Fold each of these.
Amino acid sequence: MTSRRQFLGAAAGGSVLAAHSNAFAAATSRSQDIEARIARRELKDLTKEDLPTPCMVVDLETFEKNLKTMSNQCRKTGVKLRGHVKVHKSTDIAKRQLALGSIGVTCATVAECELMAHSGIPGVLLTRQPTSKNNIERTIALAKHEPTFATVVDDPLVADWLQQAAAREGIKLRTAVDVYAGLTRHGVESGQAALDLAKEVDSSKNLKLIGLMGYSGTASHTHGWEERKKKSQDDLSGLMESVELAKKAGLPVEIVTGGSTATYNIDSESKGLTELQAGSFVFMDTLYRRIGGRSDANVYSDFGPALTVMTTVISKRHPNQCTIDAGNKALLKPTDQVKDRPEVKVENQGAEYGILVWKDGDRDYKLGERVELYPTNLDMSTNVYDRYYIARGEQIVDVWPIMGRAGAAQR
């Protein structure tokens, strides 16, 4: 038999459980409502406080300024932009660059090319020669789908494979010769070897030679503008020699492509390249910011930091430090920087945990407070998130999907 005390206790417990259940249901309903509004693009009154963390937030004003700075430089110098998508993996961003005069995009993977081309982006250039049966077949399919699509080769054998595959489908594949420019990961030797490969491509019935490519990756993170200028010019000297040889041989050189965010105002003003493959300028990361610029030896400030990873303070049990909900899985790095708090040190403490440490006891963080971090490496960080939340101040004004690992069966 149930006593009155037991009955009242059970009733009270039921009330508590009901209250918790109602609160959980309300929170779940709120979260589902936000997702539904995002899907419908109904973002009125949606702010950063409504977002899950960790998440990626783009400051729209800084982002748009970065795009215009690059566009103005290209317009002034006459060099075109074929921006690299590995940094952002977003068709929304690619289309905004096209609207400002970009002639297309460059991609490091076939999957990125497929995403861009099938979203209506013209002028897609695959900067890594396809060698597997899978990638060759997909490359040929891209050329059939989009006539402005192009790829590169740095080996006569690959040129032969592409010729055979293109012949089977009865298409003409636009192809550039990839020339060594300081990175040992790819590129045919400059000079006679590059010329011979260019001649082979040009003489192939189903390949169309469009020019040459050379990427000076070592120059892109050379500290100091003058040092970087010299490094870029040295690395690209073999490419320029190869271009002159190709022109003297009467070969078509429609494009000479390369360059990076760090060398945009070096390569564009030297007039050697006809187009730039710069990509990181759209967001900027902490590694790029510290290489120094033309006007500031300490900070590369031509482009502003537009992208942050927003986190939440989830624990605070020790003086002058707090725990955030971003760790290894969020690609947290000790070289990340805290927005508006440059004195705060970032530490990693596991898969889902990060630590912020500071010395100034008067500037504390509170539980539940949102903290935004500038990421160290854009390519890696972008790769683990599904969307960008676009912010004007605290207001979320748009949401752009990111090509995720599930975006294609194969990279």
Amino acid sequence: MWVERKKMAVLALLAALPLLPACSGAGAAEQVAGDELGALDVRLYYPPAGEWERKQPEDVGMDSALLAEAIAYAESQETSKPMDFSDQEGIFGKLLGPIPDARAHTNGLVIRNGYIVAEFGDTSRVDPTYSAAKSYLSTIAGIAFDRGLFADVQDPVAKTVDDGGYDSPRNAKVTWHHHLQQTTEWEGEMWGRKHDFVGSENFGRGEREPRELEDPGAYWEYNDVRINRLALSLLRLFGRPLPDVLKDEIMDPIGASDTWLYLGYDNADVEIDGQVMKSVTGGTRWGAGLWINTFDHARFGLLFLRNGRWEGRQLISEKWIEMATTRADVGPDYGYLWWLNTEGRAFADAPTSSYRAVGHGSNTVWIDPEHDLVVVWRWHDGRASNELYKRIIASIQSE
């Protein structure tokens, strides 16, 4: 699947690069696939820090009228979530960290061949992105993997993290792979929240009925307590705050702004080597989380569209991206904290190679290698996603 995805991405790039030596079709894709894809960096556009070039849709093979209709549709599909977050504790439970006073209206960017071809709404506003933060946390895990901080995703976390969180016979079986696929069945408490999601005060309308735990790896459950355990484990590995890791390894190299924040709960202080650090979260369920603007989201999406490369630098290995976007062993169409479309069920009218980071309020970064697209769409009705992607794809002219 990964080789085919790369071929599709290469074909899209070749269509946009008329100055390349004459070659076409699948043979061209074969010629530049694999490591040779990096040679195309000199022809690809990567937005410099503080800048992002805009193109007319026709300049990148799109119909401007159809794209304008798609954007008008997107603007009409704002989420019903209150502007003031007044529903936060009712949905999720008592807050543990900060939450803004208000959110932006629906807004977004469409990136084609690296260029901005459409923009709407307040794309510069720094807002919480909820569980889209999980895909950033997955990427931090990828950095740890690429740097050899753990040798194998199938290794038990307890092999490299010794803080009591994996001492029980059950938790000792939990691997990095389990954490990243949300199949740990980890048992315990994190920052005042238990793994079981029992009780409306702490979990709001998201509370769950008690159940018997399965073996690690046997059962998929979307569970922020366990994701917060992953975040703490990564903090232990790096020995430095994860926002600093993300900034130095990803966000600064891709030219992100200095406005984004990655926050932890008020009670999530950890002492490591005599220094107090904040352990971050996998979302904004109980406050805190990743607060970011739409442009920085789009840069992150473009990094993944380019297979982890940015201007000749491999920031995240292609091996990690392949692993992160491979369907989980059990559960839904899910990778390493990324939502996939391999079955064509999430988005029936989009390529099965497309995937997304997404959080509450439908804060979404959607990546479509086949059409060389990144679409960031925030604060919308999630049921409208397939229709928007269908319309954007329909605006792409024959190549």
Amino acid sequence: MTMRVLQVDIVVPVRNEERDLALSVRRLVSYLRAGFPFTARVTIADNGSTDGTWAIADRLARELDEVRAVRMEEPGRGRALRAIWSQSDAEVLAYMDVDLSTDLNALLPLVAPLLSGHSDVAIGTRLARGSRVIRGPKRELISRCYNLLLHACMGARFSDAQCGFKAIRREQARALLPLTRDTGWFFDTELLVLAERAGLRIHEIPVDWIDDLDSRVDIVATALADLRGMARLGRGLARGSIKVPRLRGSWMAGARPAPELPLQIASFAVVGIASTIAYVLLYLVLRGVMSAQAANVLSLLVTAVANTAANRRLTFGISGRRHAARHQVKGLIAFGIGLALTSGALAVLHSASRGLEVSVLVAANLVATVIRFVLYRTWVFGTSKPSYDRPTPSGRHPIERDHLRSEAFDPHPAAAHAEPGPAPAARA
């Protein structure tokens, strides 16, 4: 048989999954055989199982040509993905959760843009328009809060860091994997943040996703580990101890990369202090000729416009007139939150001294300032949501239409460019 280039390596990390493994892997292989147009391999990554998972993985690798099994003694999804992706010979490296919560029909649109060279990283997102998601309110709330924190604290622009359905081009993975440190659930978030900092193009696709009701993931422990991972990664990027290479393009067309979070906070604080002083002085001047509520509205409005303009230039590094009006409109919406807080504070004070009025307004304004900072990072000066490729009238994906064809699957392609060092034990 002629040796064929392996195009997609789909890694399925597992640990103590003896109940679901065989059914899920057979279902995935059936999907690939039914018409998946690229050469593909399924790699079962058993990381530290103590039940019968490895025996089942080994048996599947013997029965199915498309499957290989890799055994690692230490647990950790991140550890497994880094080890296997570092040595894989496939053009595109993907992974999915063993419960197959994501509809497999999303696999082709996930990997096709990477194989065409259009994008470098692809992720499934449950938070985009067009996604169909069935999961409990607790997980929904945690997921949205986590992604909001990523946007606010790390400057991330991708919408869903935690969906277990991702892919990356091999050469880009080889450049970024040595920079990753996490061995657990934070690994793919870390890789996405690094990819974005490297200027890579991240393609997002809406997915149909059904929550696994039997999931044994400890949500609290995972959330705490993710927060520690965010703190570690943020410190490394801010101090320069994590040096991310520029692999493609720039972070945002037409704008220089925004300063790191500590510098942003410092700049925002300076602008905020100046704005607060101007607000108080303007309020005291206007209060002599109008009511407290009217003076508050006018003072906030004037200082909000100046505050948005100053933060746009000094804190977030955006110059020029492009989108300036849009930023001001969004800034005024954020200003509405401050108006609601300060007006509410004034409404509580029926008859109070001028000094008490000012003290309460400053406190309310500080709370509004924190909220405004989060909105500035995540919405006012953030990029717009990515657009998604839509099927053509014929019902086929545009990349399929452009004749990206696959050749017959070869379950044993020749290893290419494998990194030196001992490999995990594998059965293929």
Amino acid sequence: MGDAEHMTDSQSERAAERDRGKGQSPAPLSDLLAVKQDRRSFLRAGALSLALPAAVGALAACSSSGGSGAGTAASDSTEAGTGGGAGSALDRNASSRADTGVHAGPGGSSATPPTQRDAQTTAFHRYEPTLPPVSGQRTHKVNWTVRELPVRISKDLVVAAWTFEGEIPGPVLHVRQGDTVEFTMTNRGAIPHSMDFHASQIDPKVAFKTVVPGESISFTFRARYPGAFMYHCGTAPVLMHIGTGMYGAIIVDPPTPLPPAKEFVLVHSEYYLKPGAGGVSVFDYDKMLTLLPDHVVFNGRPGQYLDEPIRARVGDRVRFYVVNAGPTHPCAFHVVGEQFDRVYLGAPPETPIRGVQTFNVPAGGGMVFEYLADIAGEFPFVNHGFGHGQKGAVGLLVVEP
């Protein structure tokens, strides 16, 4: 028999879905330009006019074997997860019996019960990109809660999200090199979760272990290097947890402060969605594996800084802390009409490269970009990988006289 004759019904449906997805493409550039001629309208059209690809089948219910994920976390790091390529290292972690691989098999989605509650009354809000001030304290006591809940990422789109502190991305944590972070995470979700700080040097089997619902974990670390770092849930499959919203940025200042600037944090990420119950779109593990996102965003919302731009004045130094949460693709960060005086590949201020037009921030990485705003105008900042820029990774910096 041929390969097609060996396919199961579900395999055939998924193959047909992939074939249909291949036929979809963004609107031609000429059509977008015809909407309006000014730059802002063009960018908004390119970022927001893409329809979600069609999805087949109804929302798959969570497996009864997954339940709430409640149970005793184990320390056996050799046991494979139960779904999404069981047996690979990324489907296990320090408490593998509490992993949520059950949510990551065929039909796996983010639709836990809390994500469906009051979804249509969830309001949209712009994620504040301004870097929060650093505390004068050298020890930072951070107590965060994991919540699974609906998040509205545009006027017409609500997603079933897994979050730190109820937000995508999670809160920006701002500390200084050498500061101590005393971190506690409490899991108020329905399934197990964890925390992985890229700014820490710590035994992940102890600190980043999975926490079952209703329990907490605490650990302490010192921020050894300055720069822009990612944090994320590290529970297996990590792809599912990052892809469903569990990420954010920690900014670490050098001992000698960088020159004064207008400072902004941009967390870049991808959304892989399918329709769910009650008008809520759910994150789709199988689609995450295809590497074809529906939206690519800065700070959790496609094109949000087109309608409400970020602002500076002529003479300001503008500094972007760009963290790429991925989960998979790089971000080719670029500001249209400007060049970067300095890009810090590693710990600032020791590693600048100068006169840069565009630089790739890898998934799981972070860099610092800055330039002097010497000209008034509207300057788009984009992922210059425009297949992703037009899916929402675009905004405006307005420089006023």
